[in-house]
Design brief:
Layout: E1 3-11, E2 16-21, E3 27-33, E4 38-39, E5 45-46, H1 49-64, E6 69-78, E7 83-86, H2 106-114, H3 117-125, H4 135-145, H5 147-150, E8 155-158, H6 159-168, E9 173-174, H7 175-178, E10 185-186, E11 191-192, H8 194-198, E12 206-207, E13 212-217, E14 220-225, E15 228-229, H9 230-241, E16 246-251, E17 255-259, H10 268-272, E18 276-279, E19 285-291, H11 293-308, H12 322-332, H13 360-380, E20 391-396, H14 402-411, E21 416-420, H15 425-438, E22 450-452
Parallel strand pairs: 1-6, 6-14, 6-15, 9-12, 16-20, 20-21
Antiparallel strand pairs: 1-2, 2-3, 4-5, 7-8, 10-11, 13-14, 16-17, 17-19, 18-19, 21-22
Helix pairs in contact: 2-3, 9-15, 11-13, 12-13, 13-14
């Protein structure tokens, strides 16, 4: 008998894969596909959307005819700040533009001036001014720079909902895709910001993220989810299974800190320091801050390795050393060697004399002191003194760095610090949000892979 499975298409900027889950939400298979970026009509890098479209349709048909698995449902989770434009017949009318594409500052400024100025507009939409990373500004960019294309647009979908549309032909929006620094959502009124209607933007009203549609493909019935934004998807398993209030530190090239239990409005200071709000699967604001942690680590580490003639991976042999931490504390105190001293500075010092360190180990301890300080600085922006956070979960690359874990634990002595290892956490969230609609009797216990630091 074939095992019933849910297929999740997880679409990242670099990796695209399919993860199959059984109804106990255990992963049973992973399929990864390589994609090469192409150029849009301006010559800027963008997704090869035709390749993605054909891959999804081919993969679904192949899974429906599998001898091993009984494919019953499909859902999608993608990175945000990416839109697809359709004409009245439902045909895509443009490339899928890259959110790194530059935008003329005068375009968002038109909106800022009409609606209270940049600070107030960004506060209400919980979206720092990030150019095309604010997907609402992408629509304005298309409207003002490519009016002949925009005139054809009848429907605007976020990326996850477009991939679902490929299989269902149904037009949807949902809160997690709208709420991720899009500048489209008013967090004061919890509705589209009024500029959306004033500019005549054709956006569908959001529905519940658990929405399913039944279609027939290859003579077989299949239920299709409407997609979910990847950051909200990765948070979903913790919201469903965590005991008590928590904050999440998701580490990698970027360190994304998320607090689903801080209901305070974003301040101008927080926005200026790269804070924003997502919307959770429960349509609640998730206050978030971010730090280029992995990138900073890589740049500084390469300098240390060059100076001390060590291989890049040598740092993995370095264990927390109380004596070295004390030496660094006495030598530098609150001063920094690697980074500038200004509050919330993310710039490296111009002059760095590595002969100040007696060993690679000493230099690495100081580097991690500074990186953990920056992480705590970013975390403190989203953790208020009275929001009751008792647990902090650390996932990703730095969850296996004992020195980082030690320093974060020291910084929060009254909170419980855990590492968490969840296989395919982002894909798991996308499966989790549709499982109840598939089979309400299934209440799987999720293993968050928690280890107390």
């Amino acid at each position: 008998m074939k095992e019933p499975v849910i297929a999740i298409f997880e679409i990242g900027k670099i990796r695209k894969k399919i993860v199959l889950f059984n109804y106990d939400l255990n992963p049973v298979s992973e399929i990864e596909e390589e994609f090469t970026e192409i150029r849009d009509d301006d010559g800027f890098e963008c997704e090869d959307i035709e390749h993605i479209e054909s891959w999804i349709k081919y993969s679904v048909n192949r899974l429906l005819n599998s001898d091993k698995y009984d494919l019953t449902a499909v859902n999608f989770t993608t990175y945000g700040a990416t839109l697809v434009y359709l004409d009245a017949t439902g045909k895509r009318v443009s490339p899928v533009y890259n959110y790194l594409k530059p935008v003329d500052d005068r375009i968002p400024e038109k909106i800022y001036k009409k609606y209270g100025g940049q600070d107030e507009f960004c506060r209400r939409t919980a979206s720092p001014a990030l150019g095309m990373l604010n997907s609402g500004m992408q629509i304005l960019w298309l409207k003002y720079t490519k009016p002949e294309v925009f005139s054809k647009v009848s429907h605007i979908l976020h990326f996850s909902q477009y991939l679902s549309y490929l299989l269902t032909g149904r037009i949807y929006s949902e809160h997690t895709s709208i709420g991720c620094h899009t500048a489209l959502w008013d967090f004061d009124t919890m509705n589209y910001h009024r500029w959306v209607g004033k500019e005549g933007l054709k956006l569908p009203d959001p529905v519940d993220v658990s929405t399913l549609n039944e279609v027939v493909i290859s003579n077989k019935k299949l239920k299709i989810g409407i997609g979910i934004h990847d950051s909200s998807s990765s948070l979903a398993p913790y919201l469903k299974s965590s005991d008590g209030k928590f904050a999440l530190i998701s580490t990698g090239t970027w360190c994304i800190n998320m607090n689903p239990f801080n209901s305070e409005k974003l301040t101008v200071e927080q926005l200026d320091h790269d804070c924003l709000c997502y919307l959770s699967i429960a349509k609640q604001p998730v206050k978030s801050s971010r730090l280029f942690l992995g990138h900073f680590h890589e740049v500084a580490l390469n300098k240390l390795c060059d100076h001390f003639n060590k291989s890049y991976n040598y740092y993995k042999t370095v264990k927390p050393d109380n004596e070295l931490l004390e030496i660094c504390k006495k030598k530098y105190g609150v001063k920094r060697f690697f980074f500038e001293m200004m509050s919330y500075s993310r710039e490296f010092q111009e002059k760095q004399d590595f002969f100040e360190f007696r060993s690679f180990e000493e230099g690495y301890h100081q580097l991690m002191r500074e990186l953990s300080d920056l992480t705590v600085e970013a975390m403190d922006l989203i953790i208020s003194s009275d929001d009751g956070i008792k647990n902090i979960y650390i996932t990703g690359t730095f969850s296996s760095n004992p020195l980082f874990l030690r320093l974060i634990s020291d910084a929060y002595p009254v909170k419980n610090i855990y590492t968490s290892e969840v296989l395919y956490a982002t894909a798991l969230g996308a499966a989790l949000v549709i499982l109840d609609s598939l089979d309400s009797t299934k209440k799987p216990v999720l293993n968050l892979g928690l280890n107390r630091c």
